[in-house]
Amino acid sequence: MRVLIVGGGGREHALAWAMSGSPLLEKLWVAPGNPGTATLAESVPIGALDLAALVEFAEAEKVDLVVPGPEAPLVAGLADALARAGIRCCGPTAAAAQLEGSKAFAKEICDAAGIPTAAWERFEDADAALEFVARRGAPIVVKADGLAGGKGVVVAATEAEAADAIRAIMDDRALGDAGASVVIEECLSGDEVSLFALCDGLDAVLIGAAQDHKRVGDGDTGPNTGGMGAVSPPAGFSLVAQAHALEAFVRPALAEMARRDTPFRGVLFAGLMLTPDGPKLIEYNVRFGDPEAQTLLPRLQSDLLPALVAACDGELRHFSLVQREIACVSVVLAARGYPGEFAKGGVIGGLDRAASTPHVAVFHAGTDVRDGAVVANGGRVLTVCGTGADLTAARAAAYQGVAAIEWSDAMFRTDIGLRALAREQAA
Ligand code: AMP
Ligand code: GLY
User: Fold this and answer.
1) Hey, which of 68, 123, 171, 339 has its CA 20 to 30 A from 13?
2) pLDDT value at position 426?
3) Residue 212: CB within 6 Å of ligand 2?
4) CATH (domain of 143)
5) Considering the domain boundaries, does residue 161 fall inside one?
6) CB of 292 closer than 6 A to ligand 2?
7) Is the CB of 190 under 6 A from ligand 1?
8) Ligand 1, residues 155, 212, 272: which to mutate, most atoms within 8 A of Cβ?
9) End-to-end CA distance of the chain
10) Within the chain, how many helices (H) and strands (E) appear?
11) Same domain, yes or no: 144 and 211
12) Euclidean distance between CA atoms 139 and 290, whole angstroms
């Protein structure tokens, strides 16, 4: 198999790492890749959103399978363009990627398919939205309808906060066109977990579940980020609960998408909240998470590559993906200041020592190589993953790996997995 991964973050490094062990792999490229993926695959200097260049490259190199990491190229139509060229893409068409591209679309699918989710309404007019908030009261959740890079959701504790969010999103267009309309939702509470399923349009197989740590600071404080660390398996979400969730949140969505003639192929990521009334859908994403991929893939026992091909070919009914009964904890090293302003260029040492620590893997994201040295070149820079027989052992391995890294601008959470451990101990 000749495989092209699209993206350049920690998720794509983990995908390259998982696939490079497959006996079916003949040649692997990553576009644009990073210094970590470059140790496993050939980097291709094409950006993830340059669809025409990606298709041209895949045709010229007779690529058998394209695996997009991020959502943006999918929402922009990468899978459609590859399909026109007769090339497999393990990701949804632009129409099916609307499950992530539009919050209102995802909610419509939930309602049509009977999938439990927070009560909601969509508004294209700020005054009507403000009136609705005044009627419903707080707490209440305001979401920009379109893609907003994780910045589109405001969980408002007061009516004034919700009103400010509506004005900023709709009147000031703080998030651009993503804010042309808003979804306003009932505020739910409970632990959050993420379920990942591989889908072929009709069938779905469970990849696994993880718990992200979205806030920048210890104790879930500070602003939201792309994710500062994750654990798998998440506490309080057993394999049986995951199997139930596959039936409740994935299969009905697939059936509804197929009914609309826009079948969903690829990885469906269901963000769930475990509320006192049972699990409810917070959002769908149409891809692996980052750092969830780095946390799930080290647990995977099955070969990922043939399963991704089967998802493209509508053959998933013959497949299951087996997870090892081990735990994985991943810790993101970000540049001090992230998710706000941060410095680039700091030299990072100790990477080999970290990677050779037992049960540790280091995945690159925002790194670059200058004069032979690895330097920081982004907000989230590295993901350090530890595996072990249980969460305690996996945490210890991950933080041992972190301690081996020498980078003076590093910032990371010291409490990844502690919440899950506390929950496990309470149970
Ligand atoms: P999203 O971008 O949809 O993942 O939302 C970001 C975060 O906002 C989620 O991870 C939740 O913590 C929170 N959130 C979203 N929707 C709700 C809701 N209906 N009730 C409470 N919190 C929510
Ligand atoms: N870590 C959350 C995401 O990838 O969307």
Assistant:
1) 339
2) 86
3) yes
4) 3.30.1490.20
5) yes
6) yes
7) no
8) 155
9) 45
10) 15, 22
11) no
12) 29
Domain total for the chain? Answer: 4
Range of the domain at 142: 125-180
Q: What is the DSSP letter of 346?
A: -
Phi, psi angles (nearest 5°) of residue 179? -100, 20
Are 407 and 349 within 8 A, CB to CB?
yes
Going from the first residue of the chain to its last (427 residues), give the mean pLDDT of each consecutive group of 10, the final group possibly shorter: 98 98 97 98 98 98 98 97 98 98 97 98 96 96 91 94 96 93 96 97 97 96 94 94 98 98 98 97 98 98 97 94 97 96 96 97 98 96 98 98 97 96 87
Q: Is residue 343 part of a domain?
A: yes
Q: Which residue has the tokens 């969460």?
A: 391
User: What was the pLDDT predicted at 167?
Assistant: 96
- pLDDT at residue 108, rounded to an integer: 98
Taking the CA of 10 as reference, the closest ligand is: 2
Is residue 312 located within the same domain as residue 414? no
| 133 is a domain residue | yes
Please tell me whether residues 380 and 417 are part of one structural domain. yes
Q: What is the pLDDT of residue 309?
A: 98
Probe residue for ligand 1, chosen from 273, 284, 286, 419 as the CB with the greatest number of ligand atoms within 8 Å: 273
Tokens for 232, please give them. 């798998």
DSSP-assigned letters across all residues of 124-191: SSHHHHHHHHHHH-SSEEEEESS--TT--EEEESSHHHHHHHHIIIIIS-TTGGGGSSEEEEEPP-SE
